[in-house]
Amino acid sequence: MHTDLQQLAHELKDRLEFDLRGKVADAEMVLHLGGFVEDAGQWRPQVWCIRNSEAPYRDVKAEFDVSEEIQKYFSGMTGDQIRAEVEQRAQAWQPFWFHQGHDLGTFNTFDGVLRDGMRAIVQTHPDQHHPFPDSLFFLDSLREWSKHLKMAILTYGAYFGAFYEPFEQYVGGGADVVWAAWPLVAPIQ
């Protein structure tokens, strides 16, 4: 198995510790670095988490930890098995994605309600602006799922804007949603 992403995650950790030394005593930082690696002739996703605190993002420390996150959800599965599982979840309106931030219980509540609402809109809307994002592997479907996730993040930001004072608004100011398509070609052996 190639370790390029693992090496990059550790290099990023080292660079963050060097560049931010003495500046992160009270500010949590959570980064996800993802991509695909060749593993036993299949493409397997890897997502590395680089963070200076543990959920629920308390006890900020000057050092960063690095961990591979896909194993927590798909332990022991091959790349093809992970792909099939993720595809099945997408078909059932339960897409797999990573969330990071404050009070994930509240975020997940909004996400679930919005997903149910968008499912009703997709199934009954008279025009084609809301197609069913039936897969996580075709670019059009990935683009559609990213819109659903962006709406959940923006809704969560609106929640903070409505119920918290400006200095307590940990979420807001927009949403960046990044996705990567599963590679279509076989890995080079």
What's the total count of β strands? 3
Number of domains: 2
Characterize the biggest β-sheet. Answer: 3 strands, antiparallel
DSSP summary: helix tally: 5
Helix content: 40-55%
Large-scale geometry: flat
- Output mean pLDDT: 84
Uncertain residue ranges: none
Descriptive report:
A hairpin with a 2-residue loop joins strand 1 (30-39) and strand 2 (42-51). A three-stranded antiparallel beta sheet has the order 1-2-3, with helices on both faces. The protein has helices at residues 4-19, 70-74, 79-91, 104-124, 139-163; strands at 30-39, 42-51, 65-68. The mean pLDDT is 84. The chain is built from five helices and three strands, in the order αβββαααα. With 189 residues, the protein is an alpha+beta fold. The protein folds into two domains: 1-76, no CATH class; 79-183, no CATH class.
For this entry, give a set of tags.
5 helices; three-stranded antiparallel β-sheet; alpha+beta; 189 residues; 3 strands; single chain
